[in-house]
């Protein structure tokens, strides 16, 4: 048996793989950070072996609650990711699997590589609706890509959607792929109607460096980008700085920040209730968008999520809070699960890339239906 993770987004340390029934592994921490939970590795020469992979340091992971009722994903072709037997024993995360192929990949969630990201941007820009702009460079010298759909016009509203500030939350970029696939569809009348009255900016991956390095939560400097929106700097968080500078040029009338949550088995939206400028009208906008989305897509719900902040207590370093206050617009954080949705489970794949893409489509449907109430 050979265990490897020296590839785009890979993360694991092999301690001992001499015994297939007790393969000893550990997750690497993010660079200059104590965060860890994301794993992605390949096991080779394992056909027909009853294997038990023990991640020894799982109890010290950033979100131990994420292991409860969790099942890892596996793939033979890195296209279809299916769930496998997984147990957390209080110390180890134990993955059990008998491979039908010589090699099998395991991950915390279906990975979204930087190569696939490059393909997504290249594909999008071939649409006459889309312009691909490089906003700047990351600390590792990667490009920060922004996709603009529609033509800027004083009569059009400006919509921003950003994803994957936390690189281990790969479901956020699967959501973005679904969004791109719908926006380039010239046969979709709803998209045409939206682009008649809005220009849409997408940042599919806010954290390319963390994504390629196999980080859970931080960039190359060990910075949590979703705590940098009140103090972004070239040294610590150039990714946020570049996006903020572009937003200042374009304005913002509606925003979505797309994430994944380790512990909660639900799709939900977190609002910005604790910002200084929160009021009754904003609450009505938030409630309308969420309830409309829940009616459109049964994978989304409004009963479970994060508790709302009380007035004046919002952390203004968060993306949604900072943007909602700065631009006076409805800005929300969309959270998706690493596990599966309890109300609409899928025993084979759990929450999956395909369902992420469908939820992105539903978000456009909700925006269209709520337009007059949520866009001011």
Helices and strands, in order, run as EEEEEEEEEEHEEEHHEHHEEHHEH
Coarse structural class? alpha+beta
CATH topology of the largest domain: Aminopeptidase
The CATH architecture category of the largest domain equals 3-Layer(aba) Sandwich
CATH level-four homologous superfamily name of the largest domain: Zn peptidases
Number of domains: 2
**Main sheet: which strands, in order across?**
11-12-14-13-15-17-16
Shape: globular
| CA-based gyration radius | 20 Å
Overall pLDDT score: 98
Portion of residues in helices? 25-40%
* Strand residues, percent: 15-25%
Unreliable residue runs = none
CATH class of the largest domain: Alpha Beta
**Straight-line distance between termini:** 59 Å
The profile of the biggest β sheet is: 7 strands, mixed
The overall strand count is: 17
Structure description:
The protein is of the alpha+beta class and 376 residues long. The chain has 2 domains: 2-107, Immunoglobulin-like, CATH 2.60.40; 114-374, Zn peptidases (Aminopeptidase). The protein is 27% helix and 24% strand. It is built from 8 helices and 17 strands. The protein has helices at residues 114-125, 171-183, 189-197, 208-213, 238-250, 280-296, 319-327, 353-374, and strands at 2-4, 13-16, 23-26, 40-44, 50-55, 73-75, 82-83, 85-88, 93-98, 103-107, 130-137, 143-149, 157-163, 198-203, 254-261, 268-270, 330-337. The chain has a 7-stranded mixed beta sheet with strand order 11-12-14-13-15-17-16, with helices on both faces. A 5-stranded antiparallel beta sheet has the order 1-4-10-6-7, with no helix packed on it. A 5-stranded mixed beta sheet has the order 2-3-5-9-8, with no helix packed on it. β2 and β3 (23-26) form a beta hairpin. α2 crosses α8 (353-374) and α6 packs across α8. The longest helix is centred in the C-terminal third of the chain and has 22 residues, at 353-374. The protein is globular and about 65 Å long. The N and C termini lie far apart (59 Å). The model has no long low-confidence stretch (mean pLDDT 98).
